[in-house]
Structures are given as C-alpha cells and as structure tokens.
Amino acid sequence: MVEGESVKTSRGFYLVLGILSIGALLIRILFLHCKSVLTGDELHYAESLFYFLRGDFTGGFSDYWSFFYPFSAVPFGHIAGDAETGLRVLSLIAGSLLLIPTALIARRIAGEGVALFAALFVALHTNLIDYSTAAMTESYYSLLLLTAVYLFLRFADSGSMLLLVAAALVTAFAYMTRQEA
User: Domain total for the chain?
Assistant: First the structure.
C-alpha cells in the first residue's frame, strides 16, 4: 500500500465516522420524546443537578449516588434551563459520541471495515439509543470507559506518559460517574 493511500483511507474513515456520529445524534433526538417521566435513579440525578445549578454543591452530593454525572451536566442544565433536560442532553451527546472510541478500538484490533460496522452497530442499537435518551449514567459512563481503554491502547503503542495520565484521568472520571461498575 502506498503511503498516500493510507492517509486517504484514514480521511475517508474519519469522514464516515463523523457522518455516523451525526446520524446517531439525529436518531437519538428522534427518540428523545419517548421518555416523558423521570423514574428510578433519574430522580436522584435530577435532584443533584438541581442543587448544582442553584450553586448548592453540598446538596448535590450523596453518600450513595455518584456526583460526577450530574456535575458534568451543569453546563447543559444552564443552557436548557432545567435539570432533567440537562441530564438528557448529556446522555444524548455521550451516546452519540460512544461510537467514536468503539470504532477506534475496533480499528486498532480488526481494521477499518470492522470499525465502521462497530460504529454503525452502536449508532443503531436499540438499547443504546434508549439509554442515550434517559437521564442515567450508562451512556456517559460507557463513553468515558471506552475512551480510557482507547487511551490505554494508544499508550501501549507509543509509551507516551501523557497518554497514560490522560487514560488514568478518564478512568477516574468514569469511576466517579459510576462507582459500582
């Protein structure tokens, strides 16, 4: 393979990955209206974000529930004007971006064709779409975890301490998002 060809293929790979990400976002937006009531854990996360949005950081913390997911949704809560929408937007974006580290890991292991199929699978998987529209930690945690795995794989290839530190930080953020996982 000529060196110029691999660059061309990579550009095409990233273009298709970008298109799939936008498509995943649009699909998730279409299904966003299916969840009209907060249930279960969503109530606590919305309450924590509500406190964070008011500037009451002690009220947003809990001995049992993780704080990082609602804390990460603070910018979206401010933009949206309410806690529930802020959490759902964070999950929506995280679920749409989840196919990127998935594809990058698959590309490293099995090549570009498998990577694009994996990205398409993540974009269209009904359970992942469902979690992306909920005010729950699953999409955000999965994005952080797979990003950490990808960074660790990049560290293993290059030996760059910067990648190791980044992987460790993202792993810590994933832990703070969902301690039990």
Answer: 1
